[in-house]
Amino acid sequence: MAETRREPQATESPLAALQQLSAEVGVPLEDLRRTVEEALAAAYRRAFEPAGDVSVQLIPETGEMDVVLRQREPDGSVTESHLPVDDFKRLAAQTARTAVMRHLRDLERDRALSELARRQGELANGMVDRIERGTVYVDLGRAEGWMPPEEQIPGEQLVPGRPVTIVVLEPKVRPRQALVRVSRASRILVLRLLEAEVPEIAAGTVHVRAIAREPGLRTKIAVSSSEPGIDPVGACVGPKGVRHRSLLAELGSEHVDIVHWDAEPEKFVAAALGPATVISVAIDADTRTAHVRVPRDQLSLAIGRDGQNARLAAKLTGWRVDIKPVENGVAQDQA
Fold it and tell me: Which bin fits 181, alpha (ψ -120 to 50), beta or left (φ > 0)?
């Protein structure tokens, strides 16, 4: 059971309250003291509305307050006077506690945001907390994940109370709260999931060269190997497809194609259009267009439903893809 922090009694001086809380939470006493002195000065101004500038100092030797009023005289000089504090002491104790707790919340928020900033682009596991107006909020422990509709996988049903894997994007500063934008639609999520499944990527022998993704529908990943004896596609698929299946299990109904990357654009474009069979690829560097020829019976497979396969191949390779069918060895214009 979590330890219950003892609230200082109203009769304790503000400095005694600070000393107790400083020892409990490990925050330097001087930091808390400055925070509380500023809060006490503001509270005194609200309570008594003195004419002039008010500052408060906590006296370490006695634990008492010294409230100083500074006023500018007509000749430009500044005079100081000490204001009474007896009627302010009970309000001061409560003000000190409130200011300290607010300061601790701000510190906790800043620490959480700093940690999240270091984890930007990394995977994180959380729990779906709630869904409000299409935005999913994820409990990440010390912070809350904020996943707007555009960062969600279309059609995926996330249920409050269920675990979810996300990728951390950028922290967002909000008063009293550590909030971070998270995503399941980002290409980075696929990259991090693949890195977690394929030890050859961590070892540096397999490299992910490019990813093209349409969340919830299909993803294409281009991989290469720095060692001749390693098949990068086979490494990512895994023995009996176990690594590929693990990736699919996290992405739901989304199809994932893993293809060979090649420095020669003709070979890369042909691989990117898989599973369709490609007869030839001719590169026009001036227009950055890859003119592709496929058997007529492979045309619909090469283009894909609603043009998805060709579109993702173009995103993956960086080349505009123009596909024509070939029949009896002669290229035919598409209708």
Answer: beta
Number of domains in the chain: 4
Output the pLDDT for position 67.
86
Angle at 155 between CA 215 and CA 301, to 5 degrees: 55
Same domain membership, residue 179 and residue 156: yes
Residue 3 lies in a domain: no
CB neighbour list of residue 78: distance below 8 Å, 6 or more residues apart:
70, 71, 72
CA distance 259 to 274: 8
Helical spans, DSSP H, in 81-186: 89-118
For residues 169 and 142, membership in a common domain is answered with yes
Range of the domain at 309: 262-335
Would residue 6 count as lying in a domain? no
Residue 24 domain-assigned? Answer: yes
- Using CB atoms within 10 A of its CB, is residue 104 exposed (0-12), middle (13-18) or buried (19+)? middle
- Where is 80: in which H helix or E strand? strand 78-83
Residue 287 sits in a domain whose CATH number is 3.30.300.20
115-152 residue pLDDT tens: 766 777 889 899 999 999 999 999 888 778 889 999 99
Residues 335, 309 within the same domain: yes
pTM for the whole structure: 0.69
Q: What CATH number is associated with residue 131? A: 2.40.50.140
In a domain, 8, yes or no: no
The dihedral over CA atoms of 40, 46, 51, 56, expressed in degrees to the nearest 10, equals: 0
3-state SS, residue 20: helix
Q: Specify the pLDDT at position 3.
A: 45
What are the distances in angstroms from CA 212 to CA 2, 217, 257?
A: 46, 11, 10
Query: How far is residue 251's CA from residue 157's CA, in Å, rounded to a whole number?
Result: 12
Region 313-330: mean pLDDT is 88
Structure confidence by residue, pLDDT tens digits, 205-254: 999 999 999 999 999 999 999 988 899 999 999 999 999 999 999 998 79
